[in-house]
Amino acid sequence: MLRSNTTDTGTADTKGVSVEVTRSPSVYSTSLSSKTKINWSGKMVDDDYNQTLKDGPYTFTFKATWSNGHTESVNVVIRIVGDYTLFLNTARQETNT
After folding, report:
1. Alpha carbon distance 66, 34 (integer Å)
2. What pLDDT shows up at residue 49?
3. Which residues fall within 8 angstroms of residue 68, CB to CB, at 6 or more apart?
4. How far apart are CA 22 and CA 60, in angstroms?
5. What is each CA distance from 86 to 39, 50, 82, 89, 92, in whole angstroms?
6. What was the pLDDT predicted at 96?
7. Which CATH code is given to the segment(s) 2-96?
8. Is 75 helix (H, G, I), strand (E, B) or coil?
9. Centroid of chain to Cα 22
10. Which of 6, 39, 80, 95 is exposed most, by the fewest CB atoms within 10 A?
């Protein structure tokens, strides 16, 4: 699950209009959704690639765009080490009990 927050601009006309997340290497992107235009969430499902994530760093770039055209980006780096499917299976078991 991907999550992002944009600035709550209150009664101002300028609001967040989109948040896009891009993963690299093996560039893949997705758009997050928001009912409030403040709290954004979504999933990045790349069925062709998710089963073969290799050990190493992956950068997720979150790019927010506001109604006035202003954009801001931030990079979040994660590192895959070992068999990530074991972690996923454990997390699923814990949430299902």
Report:
1. 13
2. 59
3. 13, 14
4. 5
5. 30, 14, 9, 5, 10
6. 40
7. 2.60.40
8. strand
9. 8
10. 95
Both structure tokens of 82: 């070992």
Q: What are the structural domain ranges in the chain?
A: 2-96
| Structure tokens, 36 | 């409030």
List b or e across 11-45, with b for residues whose CB sees 16 or more CB atoms inside 10 angstroms: eeeebbebbbbbbeeeeeebebebeebeebebebe
Cα–Cα distance between 46 and 21 in angstroms, integer?
13
pLDDT in tens, the chain (97 residues): 899 999 999 999 999 999 999 999 878 899 999 999 999 999 988 776 556 677 889 999 999 999 999 999 999 998 888 765 555 444 444 444 4
Coil, helix or strand at residue 80: strand
N residues, the chain: 97
